[in-house]
Here is the input.
Amino acid sequence: MIAAAEAPPRREAPREPAAASGRDAMLAAIDALEAGLTPVLAGGLAIIRDNPGKTPQQWSIRDGDGAVVVAFGLIDRTFFWTWDGGVSNHYTKVGETMTRVITDELRRFGHLR
Here is the structure.
């Protein structure tokens, strides 16, 4: 029998840094927004990743001519969106708030089926 002092040390699985897990949760919120909107966008609208691999991480909903209806994304663990090319920006730390506001405004202006 091995004495407690001689037992090999227990190894715990490495923990993911809090910032990385928070960022992953925020990206999951963007994925959920995209998944929820894609099937109900009005004809001719599409969600586009504007700058793959770059920051700030940004997506947009564009019409068939490429005009931006709304742009949204993440800056330093904060969601943002703009309807007017960045003249006025809106921010939240809560994914549900971003999803609700963008979805409600798209519906209000006839961009959803």
